[in-house]
């Protein structure tokens, strides 16, 4: 319903534009959990009273092994994401999972380009972009991650780094309708450190300006840019209040009851 929609006044290219961007909260469980853990977390999510799907998209990303289980147990207004997928159709790629397989088991979303894969597995900007393009071509929706290291932030190159990462994706993607861009400063992931609301807003605003200048005003105003990096129940509302922060990609806190508070932070936008 229109009354439940989230209307934001965003400043793009020097002009005020009324635009609808629904809040987005993703829970990245990473390489954690057992069947017993999964059932407990899903029960917590299923019983939670949270804003409706008209207000917030909630997407849960368990390890590959648990995707079918979570998909079968999770409430219908929450969606499920894989944490990665292969860059092309399957075949002789031992250990990989293809986009086609994810579609086959009813998974709608995939996280691509997470800093842990970039750093630990050497995924380049171009490789990530190829994966984003292929996943989109198969019908998956993509949470595409960008972010700088501590060394890059301290050297003043944050904006250049995230622009280059985003540019690689933009070179391969023409339809941004199914893309959520996740800004995750590497130095804030799993460290307990978190970008200040002002730091997060600065990068999100610059990313939106980059999209405006290099992709187009419609993409810039409609693409959701979410923040990830030690988001928790204590800091989520202040971060959510920033005009260009459209939600979160949550790591460790998505395994805890406080994840419910993070989902509820979407209400901050309604009172803005």
Automatic annotation (TrEMBL):
This is Triosephosphate isomerase. It comes from the Eukaryota. GO terms for molecular function: triose-phosphate isomerase activity. Pathway: Carbohydrate biosynthesis. HAMAP family: TIM_B (MF_00147_B). SUPFAM superfamilies: Triosephosphate isomerase (TIM). Homodimer. Belongs to the triosephosphate isomerase family. GO terms for biological process: gluconeogenesis; glyceraldehyde-3-phosphate biosynthetic process; glycerol catabolic process; glycolytic process. Keywords: Isomerase. GO terms for cellular component: cytosol.
């Amino acid at each position: 319903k229109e009354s439940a929609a989230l209307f934001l006044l965003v400043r793009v290219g020097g002009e005020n534009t009324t635009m609808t961007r629904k809040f987005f909260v993703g829970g990245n469980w990473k390489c954690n959990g057992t069947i017993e853990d999964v059932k407990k977390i899903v029960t917590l999510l299923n019983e939670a009273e949270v804003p409706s799907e008209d207000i917030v998209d909630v997407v849960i990303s368990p390890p590959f092994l648990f995707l079918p289980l979570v998909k079968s147990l999770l409430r219908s207004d929450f969606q499920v994401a894989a944490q990665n997928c292969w860059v092309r159709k399957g075949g002789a790629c031992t250990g990989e999972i293809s986009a086609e397989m994810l579609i086959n088991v009813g998974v709608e979303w995939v996280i691509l380009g997470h800093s842990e894969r970039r750093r630990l597995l050497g995924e380049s900007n171009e490789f990530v972009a190829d994966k984003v393009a292929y996943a989109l071509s198969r019908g998956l929706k993509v949470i595409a991650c960008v972010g700088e290291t501590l060394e890059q932030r301290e050297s003043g190159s944050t904006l250049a780094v995230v622009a280059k990462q985003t540019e690689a994706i933009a070179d391969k993607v023409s339809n941004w309708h199914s893309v959520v861009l996740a800004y995750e400063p590497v130095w804030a992931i799993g460290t307990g450190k978190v970008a200040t609301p002002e730091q997060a807003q600065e990068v999100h605003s610059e990313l939106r300006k980059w999209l405006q200048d290099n992709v187009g005003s419609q993409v810039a105003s409609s693409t959701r840019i979410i923040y990830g990096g030690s988001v928790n129940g204590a800091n989520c509302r202040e971060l959510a209040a920033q005009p260009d922060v459209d939600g979160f990609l949550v790591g460790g806190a998505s395994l805890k009851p406080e994840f419910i508070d993070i989902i509820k932070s979407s209400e901050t936008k309604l009172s803005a």
